[in-house]
Amino acid sequence: MTKLALKQGFKNLWFWLFLSTTFLQVFRGSLVDAIIFGSGTLMVFLSAANLLNHVHLTKPHTNKYAIYTTVFVIVVALALVPRHTPLQAIIVLAILPLALRFAWYSDRGPKDKPDDRMKRSRMAWAAGGVGLLLWEFAANIFGQLDGSLHSFPTISVLIDPILDNIFGQAIFVILWLLIGITFLRIWKKP
Which of 24, 39, 66, 151 has its CA 20 to 30 A from that of 134? Predict the structure, then answer.
């Protein structure tokens, strides 16, 4: 590993976001989340440092009916399984390789120059993401120090009542998958 590779890894904003989230999970005492975010931190660093250059995956494209079928199976599986159970964790871990395959590929070649509307949209998403991140960090830290989940509620504490039934879980999973599919533009032809 060269100094240049290390420098590139450390310059990547996603590395620092994942690393700070890993430390937050350690602070919270959530070992599983710390392992998940720690693994993500390592993957982002290796990718940013160009140490995964030997992996030359192209952007996958798939039939829309395969997407619909996969979404249906995942929604049914995650809506019927009780939350925070080992079986739910197994299902999510089984989905992970599929999600990584669609999200992690070599993004090379010419890019369209964004117009003003796209620039405003990116800024709005970035501001919303940073706002949610700050809320979650503050709520987790103040909640831990206060010893109460409800004095400084995280987003998960606020939406937990909605997710405590099969319909709420199904709607959440559908939205979660649709957002991911939309961001990744899986259906878009090369």
Answer: 39
Taking every pair of Cα atoms in the chain, the longest distance, rounded to a whole number of angstroms, is 52
Spatial distance between the Cα atoms of 49 and 141, rounded to a whole number of angstroms: 31
Task: Sort residue 149 into left (φ over 0), alpha (ψ -120 to 50) or beta.
Answer: alpha
Residues near 159 by Cβ (< 8 Å), separated by ≥ 6? 172
Phi, psi of 113 (to 5 degrees): -75, 130
Alpha-helix residue ranges (DSSP H) falling in 62-154: 64-80, 86-103, 116-146
133, burial (CB in 10 Å: exposed 0-12, middle 13-18, buried 19+):
middle
Mean pLDDT of 12-24: 87
Q: Which helix (H) or strand (E) covers residue 51, if one does?
A: none
Q: Give per-residue pLDDT as tens, 131-175.
A: 888 888 888 888 888 887 778 888 888 888 888 888 998 998 899
Amino acid letter, 116: D
Contact present, 48 and 11 (Cβ < 8 Å) = yes
Report, in this order, helix, strand and coil percent for the chain, each rounded to 5: 70, 0, 30
Element (DSSP H or E) covering residue 50: none
Would you kindly state where each structural domain of the chain is located, as residue ranges? 1-55
